[in-house]
Amino acid sequence: RIKQTNGEMRVLFRQAMKPNPAKLLLALLTVGALDGSVAQSTGSDSCPCLEWADISDYLENGQLKVKLYGSSGIAYNYPQDYGHMFCSAHDKGLEPFCTESDAPSWCQSSWCWVDKDKCKGVAAIKSSWFPSEQNLYLSYETCGSSDTFSNSDRDITATLVNYLVSAKNNIENIFARVQKASGCQVEEVCGCSSCTYDSFWQQAVNFADVGTWSPSGTDFAPAQCVSQAVGETYRKVAASEFSEDAHSQRVGYQYSALHDSGSYTQWPLANWCPAEDFDPRLRPWYAAGATGPKDVVIVVDVSLSMNQEERHTMAKAATEAVLDTLTWRDFATIILFNHDIQATYSEKLVPVTNQNRADMHIWIDKQDWTTGGTAFATALTKAFDIIATSVDLAATSTCQRAIMFLTDGDDQNFAQQDYDEVQNLANDWNTVIFTYALGDGAGQKRTKQLACENRGIFYNVPDSASKSLPDVMTRYYTYFAAGQQACNPSFVRYADSITSEILYAGCMPVYDVESSASTSELVGVSCMDVSMLASVEDLQNPPAWRASAGSDWEQMVCEMSDISKECRPVEVTDCHLEQLRAEVGEESVCSSDISAARKLATTECPCRDRDCQDDSSFLDEQGYKCWSWIGDDCSKATERFSYSAKGQQAVMTNCQRSCGLCKWHDQCPYSSLIDTCERREDLSQCQACVGKVSGVGIDEKQMCCPGQEGPNAPKCSDVTTTPKPAADTGSSSDTGSSSGLPTVTGSMRISVSNPVAFLNDAASSTAAKAMLADRTNLATSKIQVTLSLARRLSQRRLQSTGEVLVSYVITAVSTTQASVLEDRMATWTPEAATVAFNNQLSSTSYEVTVQTLGEESGSEEQWVATAATEDEEGAPMGVILGAAAGGVLLLVGGVLAYCFMKKNRSTTKSAVTAVPHAKKEDLRQAAEPQQPFTNNSEKEFESNMVVAPMPIGSSSVVEPLPTNWINQDPNADFFTIEPAPDMEAVVQKMLDATFKDIKTRDRKGGAVPKKLQVMMVNRVENNKVWQQFCGERRRIDARRGRSAGLRGATLLAKLRGGDAMTMLPESGGLAVAAGAPLNPTLNETYLWHGTSPGAAMSIGETGFDVGRSGSGAGMMYGPGVYLAECSSKSDEYAQDDKSGLHKGLYSLILCRVVLGELLTLTTGGDSVHAVVKAAIDGGSFDSVLGDREASVGTYREFIAPKSAQVVPEYIVLYRRMLHTE
């Protein structure tokens, strides 16, 4: 028997000497000594390897029988000592995970079985292979196996990709067999009985297991077996990478979803019950994993008929749902059309960053969706114009393009020439058109023909099924998934909905590799967070012993961005397209022969020759990789993109697959999709370091090169957050300030020979426009230029200088972009501008010297422009500094400055407005005086401190008091707390209606209570605070309301999220305002503020004090009074009195607040404080809406920067009812 292997001998000795473990151990050591091996580790003292007493129950013919994935699943024969008693790389070389060349890293790691009850401080994971063994766990940590981050020789990104690929391969290899299995056991996440609450994770979890969830009505058995299959790889990764200590140091998940059923699997198992409408297939990570980068133009009919059957509501919901499937590497915009272009989100495509997506949602809510007629051609032409402009400006993913066209009507004027024009444009720009006919009256003929002629799919959505429109439109990505096979992961960045931690995840699609050799049939998507291997904080600030310390994170961001942005060819023939259409329904099939179409559904379509591949190392003459040619016609590289003839030929030779030049086999010679992937091996070489890039990286910053400057990209350490191309509220159908879009205005003074001839030459203004277009990277259509003689204003007289003033107005797509452009223009030197101007004038005889770029405001001598023919002795002209006509919004936050000079009425010639670049500090000084925005260094979400009394102010206006107050003398100085038992039922209803079971990091300890139970309601009657509030309300009304001849502020109801929850009918908030009506045009409303009973009484007496900002839980949006619409959010800041009359009770203050114009932000922190301050100080905004609900799914908070904007009207004392009560 000595000749047998060590493993066999161990089992034989154990069976023979079971009553005497000492002899067994001696025998095993002897066997080890006989063959010269060193005695193996038996694990740590705190978690020894298990001597598995019942192993013989699973032995058959001298081998361990392992049955995966249920009682009817796949059986494997493993060595008898698999995991038994000693540490070893037990999985090395074993099926189903560790036989491939790209086997996961844990295949090489040592582990053994352990008894979890006997393990202290060591991570152990439950095995699913022996379900009847209740206490059989495996541990890598006890065997000393180090995780990836602790091993300085292991690359984080490469390891993560390895894990993702192994999970993908595992599911693909066993998918068909697992679907037929039964008897699988995976615990459901909802109602998890084995989960215990973890304060760091802020939820009940079980780190030793995985959990699953399936939508109601689906067959749970197959999903359970697939979950068990993928769950085993998740367990192994968790066991090897997540030590016991890591559970309290970082949050990270592994998760996947199946395409057909929507079933979801996750590690760790957590007690989590998804919302009723939850569908993982509609999440950005799923679409990102299933498809490559893409450009999407969403075109929606908003004609009057959309008001029928609430179609416009469904159209809005569908548009937002499509946006929610896009990620940072995708580009998109939205066009709303009727008989004309009603509104456009952006005149070029914008990357769908988290911020931009949130801004798009807000923009959608502000538009009119039910007006006018229907004109298809106008809308489609606009879509292609935007695509063309975006390509010119490199605002594109350089990948697939799609137009999603939704209408509920028909356009009888859309003729054959319009079809031809659209088809030509779609071919030129390689654009797929998906069409959606919404409602019973929608014309299907034209919309279907548009889809069929442009490689798209037509969808008919009758009114009876209109609620399914969001689901229908978001399935566009199945088209791309069917035509491409992703061999590399895509990365997404998101905020954990429970802890709000910023997480990065890699996702990979999973295919049914055995069903077809020519079609990529999507099975699902599997993802893993980077923090499974290390926390983002550790990666950003690695310890000294970590290899390449200090550059790991920049390199990782570069690698994640590069691999995600790599385009994937969509390889579909007409056969594939008809099969995809048939899956939607027969009415979507383009062939007129339905019987032939039905037969086609079971036909094996042609497939591409797999020997035809790109040269992955090739870089074309302009610095682009082969994949950037996907979607473009390589044969027109010279004509369209100015490549040399040699450069064009090089592209077509080296990039045959991306150029679509591969041969197709009518009879597919391959048996499956297996082995068709070409994975990217070298992740370290960043495209930004060697060639051209577009868009932003996964961190939503400009693409950059780690450690050095690239040929077309900056060094990463020099890059700040990329400004978001956000949407404005107005229509973008026009240019200039009349469009409602923000503009950047300025001027330059130039010397030129023969200035009169220069002014009369059209080439001069053309050159000026072209020069400014180059500087701003915008189209010349976005720039207006006026040339005029320059006059110097000195001692109140205009004096001719013989120089020319070039005044310009540049239209931006957002206030943020306007700020960027303003800074770019302000940093332009006269020397550089001189060279640029003369380059544009190279074909003329003029020689220009730029003297100045934007005179400083407030200087002794100011330059102005006049009409060229005006009398030199004319009177002084009006000068507007910092704003174009109508009050242009300048800088982020809208810092406005107006400097006026008295204009002589005898002037007969209208002056050209000159708008030089004023310094920002000068603009602020010139602005209309405002109340100071406190710059207190303390931070707060909600100020709960006792404060000093506030002065009433000098206003002589005395407002009447609320009629429900006991005190009714508006001239008296009084403060009382009055019991209000009649309000208890009203307030209880408001508490219940505004309560959400969502926890954020501001809830310090404990779970979200089940209910807030009102114990007492007191009304605050404080005349001083009331009169201050009324004065502030009058001030806002004078700026925004009817007294100023305006309609008021932008209503909260039109912003994302709508009216405050406190004011919804189900909340009954209007009943609180019975004593004094609210002014809705100024966004006067009721909101909650959390504090302690003692502090609430003090606030009632003195009012809020912004100067105390920072005394609570941190300051996300700058100083101010922080309020919430949800009682559960304010409850996070509430405290109970530890003694006294109100011991054990918590307090919320129900506040009346006048918000005025709201600045909406979805991100906060120190970086936005200056933006907020400029916005408030400049007078463009009165309050801030921190919409964390839009960005991370938690809450909206409202910040009033002035104490006088808030009245503490009711003090609510309550107790928290826990779930155990």
What topology does this entry show?
Elements: H1 6-16, H2 21-34, E1 43-44, E2 47-48, E3 59-60, E4 63-68, E5 74-78, E6 112-114, E7 125-126, E8 137-139, H3 156-179, E9 187-188, E10 196-198, E11 203-206, E12 211-213, H4 220-241, E13 254-258, E14 264-267, E15 269-270, H5 284-290, E16 294-301, H6 311-323, E17 331-337, E18 341-344, E19 350-351, H7 354-366, H8 376-392, E20 400-407, H9 416-428, E21 431-438, H10 444-453, E22 458-461, H11 469-474, H12 477-483, E23 490-495, E24 502-511, E25 522-529, H13 536-540, H14 552-565, H15 574-584, H16 594-600, E26 607-608, H17 637-641, H18 645-654, E27 664-665, H19 687-690, E28 743-752, H20 755-760, H21 762-776, E29 783-794, E30 797-811, H22 815-826, H23 830-840, E31 848-853, E32 862-866, H24 920-926, E33 975-979, H25 984-993, E34 1011-1022, H26 1023-1040, E35 1084-1091, H27 1093-1102, E36 1121-1124, H28 1127-1131, E37 1146-1154, E38 1158-1161, H29 1169-1177, E39 1183-1187, H30 1188-1192, E40 1196-1200, E41 1206-1217
Parallel strand pairs: 9-12, 16-17, 16-20, 20-21, 21-22, 38-39
Antiparallel strand pairs: 1-2, 3-4, 4-5, 6-8, 7-8, 10-11, 11-15, 12-14, 13-14, 13-25, 17-18, 17-19, 23-24, 24-25, 26-27, 28-30, 28-31, 29-30, 29-32, 33-34, 34-41, 35-37, 36-40, 37-41, 39-40
Helix pairs in contact: 1-2, 3-4, 6-7, 8-9, 21-23
Notes on the structure:
This protein is α+β, with helices and mostly antiparallel strands. The protein is 26% helix and 19% strand. It contains 30 helices and 41 strands. Strand 29 and strand 30 form a beta hairpin.
